[in-house]
């Protein structure tokens, strides 16, 4: 695959079923139309290195080709094997390369990168990977999945696993990206369900269910309605990995109580899917009711946070709509589905008081839109000055809107 190469993937909003999705219950998520990660792959200045430039997390690291050689032969292992369990041999071989990055966001991003790179590209060197994202990190909007999808698509192409000339990503190629990004998510947070990377790969909205055999089933929800909602980011940091393992521990300690909670969340998602397929004034109230119940069950699982309850409390006291946390919780984001008759001035008051009194950030964004996408080298070269300038650290992420697949004049392929 000739360089440069640009890949992109969206963030996501889980409407119903976070956490229960990990335990094979159905869940619904949609891609976030305007919040995306972009990965630019270029020739490195030095042919003997592989470089990561991930400024959002302060990661600028180079590995020498000699460090990448001598990796274990993964010969017979296919993606499904890695999906079931990450290779212990590869993990052990990567450990020394990650040593200086321990205990940080950097570690997980670099681990995800190296696992995919070594598995799919061997010891190729002379390549630089630069990331720019409009997604908040660790906020519940799927930043980890979007980066894993950008990497899986780019590295799959560099390693010759995906066609370099195609004018469209085929079903099989999307499956490849879905599987390898799931493997990347496993590096970042241990036991993902796969819903986040499925949405970041396929886009639009999906009804997702993880199967017992580590396979996943995601059904596209066509004509997903634009539900009027406000996303609020508390900015309270948390880790999906820690929250997911906390829920697993609760299920082990209190199975008689916690298993039915998780099952109820699955029933909510299934009912939610029926409503969303045929949303009308008459079932909108039930949709709001499901949002309220789903949040209550997430509270019971211990994954809310006082900072999220502020949003719920304000939304409830203003009777503006129904609020639930979205993503892994523990901080991060909440979504508020607005009542159909919510007055404009009440919506404004809700947003400004969360912003001014609590320092939260609110987003009004459309849902749905393209999943993963790439721009081939000839197109990038024709627009190189523009694209390169957007990856400058001093350029605000709001400028990334000129790159939006589906809206931009650049020829994204997806
Ligand atoms: N722009 C980025 N640059 C580099 N690494 C990133 C970026 N965005 C996300 N990551 C990686 O993803 C990790 C955050 O993932 P985490 O799953 O905890 O949060 P999230 O994906 O934003 O939220 P959720 O999983 O609840 O949707 C970071 O530790 C980092 O390794
Ligand atoms: C908490 C969780 O359900 C959603 C995180 O966005 C984890 C997952 O499904 O991988
Ligand atoms: Mg994540």
UniProtKB/TrEMBL annotation:
Reaction(s) the record says it catalyses: (R)-mevalonate + ATP = (R)-5-phosphomevalonate + ADP + H(+)
A molecular-function term among this protein's GO annotations: ATP binding
Enzyme class: transferase
GO cellular component term of the entry, any: cytosol
The enzyme's E.C. designation: 2.7.1.36
InterPro entries hit by this protein: GHMP_kinase_C_dom, GHMP_kinase_C_sf, GHMP_kinase_N_dom, GHMP_knse_ATP-bd_CS, Mev_gal_kin, Ribosomal_Su5_D2-typ_SF, Ribsml_uS5_D2-typ_fold_subgr
Domain of life: Eukaryota
Keywords noted in UniProt: ATP-binding, Cytoplasm, Kinase, Lipid biosynthesis, Lipid metabolism, Magnesium, Nucleotide-binding, Steroid biosynthesis, Steroid metabolism, Sterol biosynthesis, Sterol metabolism, Transferase
Database matches in PROSITE patterns: GHMP_KINASES_ATP
Family indicated by similarity: Belongs to the GHMP kinase family. Mevalonate kinase subfamily.
The name this protein goes by in its record: Mevalonate kinase
Species annotation: Lachancea dasiensis
